[in-house]
Amino acid sequence: MANGVERELAVLFSEEELREMSGVKRGEEYIEVTCGCTSHRYGDAVGRLRGFINGELEITCECTPGCDEDTMTPAAFEKHSGRETARKWKNNVWVIVNGEKVPLSKTVLLKYYNQASKNGNGSHRSNNGRVCHRDEFVRCSECNKERRFRLRTKEECQIHHDALADANWKCADMPFDKITCDDDEERASRRVYRGCTRSPTCKGCTSCVCFGCEICRFPDCSCQTCTDFTRNAKV
């Protein structure tokens, strides 16, 4: 499996594309490079940017030895750095190419992020042209069983979004499928089928994992995920 992933990464970003970037590291499911964001007041905040096969981007901050921030979205890293003109992370977060700071927007690193997040365009569509979101699971706070959520409509995405944000969510809160904590949890052999149009037992790809579109993000929601998407959609 690992060899297959490495071959896919080699296709996503060739050695030629990454050759002049600083700090390149290849993991089983990601590419990692040195990145940063510059504040005129505080200087450079440096971190490690990871780009995953499914288009997700995350940054581990290394701004100071005592920084206790966990992994962040690029937008959150931009804000954390103290950048004065925030909300334009694609231009403000940079990587080092040939010794020069180059905005992410001018590199190949956003190619698959854009495919996965551009309002369901590109590869993030099913065969009939509609946006595709795989089924997700939320764990009950009372019985500790995982329950399946279908994400085919905006209403279903809203229900899952709210459940995921509720630390006290329980089986009885499921609006459509009336289940209780006494009902059996899905068997592991069944949970691997999550509705990917590319492969029935897919573990996550750009065809079924969405990191933001008009169906699963909500402009009236104040959570970091929705806020980042709404801001970036305006960039």
Automatic annotation (TrEMBL):
Q: Listed GO cellular component terms?
A: cytosol; nucleus
* Classification of source organism: Eukaryota, Viridiplantae, Streptophyta, Embryophyta, Tracheophyta
Q: Gene behind this chain?
A: LOC105136218
The protein in question is named Protein ULTRAPETALA 1-like
Gene source species: Populus euphratica (Euphrates poplar)
Q: Tell me where in this chain the SAND domain is found.
A: 16-106
Q: Which Gene3D superfamilies match?
A: SAND domain-like (3.10.390.10)
| One MF term in the entry's GO annotations | DNA binding
Return the InterPro entries for the record.
Answer: Developmental_reg_ULTRAPETALA, SAND-like_dom_sf, SAND_dom, ULT1/2_SAND, ULT1/2_Znf
